[in-house]
Design a protein that fits this description.
Elements: E1 2-8, E2 18-27, E3 37-39, E4 45-53, E5 57-60, E6 63-66, E7 70-73, E8 80-83, E9 88-95, H1 99-104, E10 115-117, H2 118-122, H3 128-132, H4 138-153, H5 162-172, H6 179-186, H7 190-200, H8 205-224, H9 230-236, H10 242-253, H11 259-262
Antiparallel strand pairs: 1-2, 2-9, 3-8, 4-7, 4-9, 5-6, 5-8, 7-10
Helix pairs in contact: 8-10, 9-10
Length: about 280
């Protein structure tokens, strides 16, 4: 089976809200099963549309369950295993988690470490998935996504919100920031931050910091190849020591760090540079 995936930058006006768009295709024989795919926590939410092909399945509660054709995925703190068979095409909008409440007035907390079909998430029927169905041309899918997102911009609330500012600071620091620093820089108490994160994201600030730190270390490891020092990786990304890095890696992926090379087909490939479509 041939598996292809790529990531694409959003337009400038949408970059405060959208991390990237992605497209993934599986091309195989009719009943050929894909390798199990391992989605790791990235500190983002995902709007995913299965635009064409066979059903995808996710491993939940010790069984494989069919995924909806269009669904919203919250911030995950655990790895998620999924698979498909034959030929399938998926398109995703990777959204910064605070963007859900900013763009759609729906907090990401409701889907923390979980997913739900798109209509249930929005509380109403949306034609986004219908407009994408059957399309495998990435440029057109991105245009449909951006048309949909641009319509939400006119509803933005411009009031200051410390949770939005906190998530941005955490991402800019690559997760190398303490809760006390975050509280001090934003002039809000740690208790306020805890409550705001739980209400908006579903995760605590400390959990989100750990996820973002892991994401940056994961991307570095994947792009560096297997000729690296785990001790240096641990030090460079703010871990107390190598043991803490390995503990986080196991928790967030369900595997040891060397598995990223030994079972590369299972792990999502993070792009060093995102493609730009004109």
């Amino acid at each position: 089976m041939h598996i292809f995936q790529n990531e694409f930058l959003p337009s400038a006006a949408l970059r405060p809200f959208v991390d990237c768009y992605w497209f993934q295709s599986f091309t195989g024989e009719l009943c050929e099963e894909s390798p199990v795919q391992r989605c790791v926590p990235l500190g983002m939410t995902e709007l995913i549309v299965h635009v064409k092909g066979n059903t995808c399945y996710v491993f939940v509660d010790n069984e494989w369950k069919a995924l909806p054709d269009a669904y919203m995925v919250g911030v995950y703190k655990d790895a998620v295993m999924w698979k498909t068979q034959g030929t399938s095409y998926l398109f995703g909008i990777r959204l910064k988690p605070e963007s859900l409440i900013r763009l759609f007035k729906v907090p990401a907390a409701g889907v923390f470490n979980n997913y739900t079909d798109l209509d249930t998430f929005f509380g109403k029927k949306t034609d986004l998935a219908d407009r994408m169905m059957g399309i495998t041309e990435v440029g057109l899918l991105i245009k449909i996504a951006e048309d949909f997102l641009y319509k939400q911009l006119c509803h933005l609330n411009s009031e200051r919100n410390y949770v939005y500012e906190a998530t941005n600071l955490i991402r800019k620091s690559k997760g190398d920031i303490r809760l006390e620093e975050l509280s001090g820089q934003l002039y809000v108490s740690e208790r306020q931050l805890q409550r705001g994160f739980k209400d908006c994201l579903g995760a605590s600030p400390k959990t989100y910091i750990r996820i973002i730190r892991f994401r940056n270390a994961y991307e570095y490891v994947q792009q560096s190849g297997n000729d690296l020092s785990w001790a240096n990786v641990s030090y460079n990304f703010g871990y107390a020591d190598q043991a803490h890095f390995i503990k986080d890696f196991k928790q967030f992926t369900g595997a040891v760090p060397t598995a990223i090379f030994q079972k590369a087909e299972e792990f999502p490939q993070m792009s060093r540079e995102l493609a730009i479509l004109n």
